Amino acid sequence: MSDAIVPGELPDHLEEECGVFGIFAPGEDVARMTCFGLQALQHRGQESAGIAVGDGESMIVSKDLGLVTQAFNESSLAALTGYVSIGHVRYSTSSCSGDTWEAAQPHISAIDDMLIALAHNGTLVNTNDLRVKTVEEGIQLRAGTDSEIAAKLIGLYTQQTSHIRSGIKRAMEIIEGAYAMVLASPTALYAFRDPNGIRPLCIGTLPNNRGWVVSSETCGLDIVGATYLRDVEPGEVIKFSFSGMESEQAIEPRRRASCIFEYVYFARPDSNIDGQSVYQARRNLGRIIAREAPADADLVLGVPDSGLPAALGYAEESGIPYSDGIMKNRYVGRTFIQPTQAMRQLGVRLKLNPLSSVLSGKRLIVIDDSVVRGNTSRQLVQMLRDAGAAEVHLRIVSPEVTWPCFYGIDTDSREQLIAANMTVPEMSSGWAPIRWRSSRSRAFMRLSPTAATTASATPASRATMRFPSLRPCRRSRSSPSASCSRSRIRRASRATPSCRRQRAFPA
C-alpha cells in the first residue's frame, strides 16, 4: 500500500507495482476465491483491481478502480462463473496511466473468436520497441501500458502459431524486464516468469486435488486453503488444465536476480519468497544491525509495519526491551481529499502517532526498513522528540538507495532518491545536533539531546554536522515503460464486463 496519502506527496518508500493471482479449480467458486486471494495481496497495489473468469467457452472480465472491496461485491462476483480465473491488484509505476480504467488489469487479447486475459506484476524495459511492433502489426492499444502490450503480443503470436504456449514462448523471447504473469484462456491457466526471476510467483494445490493456485506471495495461497508446492522457475511456463500441471522451460534462465526489497518491505511478513520466510529475513536484519550499530538506549521501536520484525530482532540481539511506541492508523490509505497547509505539515501523523506515555524521557532505538526520499524519516524523528523522547537513534536495515530501478519499483529517476543527491552529512541536517555513523553498508543516525557537539569529541567513524531541512525531490517520469493515457472514462464502461463466446485454442 502506498505511503502517499495527500495529493502531491511522494511516498517515502519504494512502491511495487502489482500482485497477481490465478486458480484452476473445476467445481469451485473461482471468482470468489480469486477475490479473497487479491485481498491477501492488497498491500501490493490499491489503485485498481480486476478478475477474469473462463467457463470453457467464454471469458468474462470485470475490473474497476480502487480497492478489491470497492471493485467487487456479491452481485459482481455472482456474475463471474467458471472454473479458471485470474486476478490483479495494481500500483502504477507511471503516474499518468495509473488512474485510468483502461490501465486496470487483467488485459484481454482476441485470438480469432477467442479471448485470453493477462495479469502482470513487474515492468518491461523495452516497452517502446514493443509498442512500435504492436502498431506495425495493426494492433490497437487502449492504455498503452507494458502489460497491455504483452497481452496483445501473446495473442498475436498465439494466432500465428495456433498454440497458446508457443505464443507465450515467442513473446518471452522478445520482452525484456521483470515479469511474473498469469494468463487465462476459457479452458486453462498459465503462469510464467522472467528468466532472472526478479518478481515472485508461487504455486499451490487445493486439498483433495481440487485444483491449482498461483499467487505473487504465499499469503495468497493461505487465504484459500492451498498448500504451497513450489515457485515458478525463471523462464518457465506452466499450464494448468484438466490434463494436470504441465511445465516447459520456455527460455533459458539467466543469473538469478530476486528483488531484495521483497524481503525488506514489499511482501507480507507471513509470506515466503523463493523459499525464504520474509518474517525471519526481517528479524535477522534486525539482529545484524544490532551487532553492526549498537547504542545505549532504553527501548527499541519498529516503524509499522515492515520495521516491526527487524525491531524484535534488534531487541533480542541487543538485550534492550522492545516496546510498542508508534501506533498506525490502519484505516488511512491513499486519499484525494485536499488538505490544508496546516494538515500537510502534520505529514506522517495521518498514519503514525506516538505513545507519549511510553516514550517520554526514554532513549529510543527506532528501526525502519529504508530511506528513499527522506521526507518521512525527518518527520518521524521530530514527532518522537515532540512526544518527549530524550534520544532518537534511527536504524535503517537496508543500504542507501542511490540508483533507480526500472523493474517494477517506483524510482525511475535519481532525482527522487535522497541518497543519490545528498551526502551523508547533508542527509543528516535538519534536527539540531546529529551524529551520523555508517556501519558497512547499513547506516544509522543518532539524535543527541545536547545543544552542541564537537567533532573532536566524537570517534573517528562519526561526524558532527548541522542540517538543512529536507525536501522531497521533484518527481520525474523518464522510465522507458512509462505511458500516458488520459482518455475520459465513462461509468457505463466500468460496469459493462467484456464477455465473448470463444472456441478452445490448443495449448
Instruction: Trace the largest sheet across and list its strands.
Output: 11-9-10-1-4-2-3-24
Which class best fits the helix and strand makeup? alpha+beta
CATH class of the largest domain: Alpha Beta
Low-confidence stretches: 1-11, 431-505
> What's the pLDDT, averaged over the residues?
80
Radius of gyration: 24 Å
| CATH structural architecture of the largest domain | 4-Layer Sandwich
Number of domains: 2
Molecular structure report:
By secondary structure, this protein is of the alpha+beta class. The protein has two domains: 18-259, Glutamine Phosphoribosylpyrophosphate, subunit 1, domain 1 (4-Layer Sandwich); 277-406 and 410-465, Rossmann fold (3-Layer(aba) Sandwich), CATH 3.40.50. Helix content is 26%, strand content 25%. The protein is built from 16 helices and 24 strands. It has helices spanning 30-40, 68-71, 74-78, 127-136, 146-161, 164-174, 218-223, 261-266, 278-292, 308-318, 341-346, 356-359, 375-386, 418-421, 424-427, 491-495, and strands at residues 18-24, 48-54, 58-65, 84-90, 107-111, 114-124, 177-184, 189-193, 202-205, 212-215, 227-231, 236-241, 244-249, 272-273, 276-277, 299-302, 326-328, 352-354, 363-368, 391-396, 434-439, 442-447, 462-465, 498-501. An eight-stranded antiparallel sheet has the order 11-9-10-1-4-2-3-24. A six-stranded antiparallel sheet has the order 5-6-7-8-12-13. Strands 16-19-20-22-21-23 form a six-stranded mixed sheet, with helices on both faces. Mean pLDDT is 80; it is low at 1-11 and 431-505.
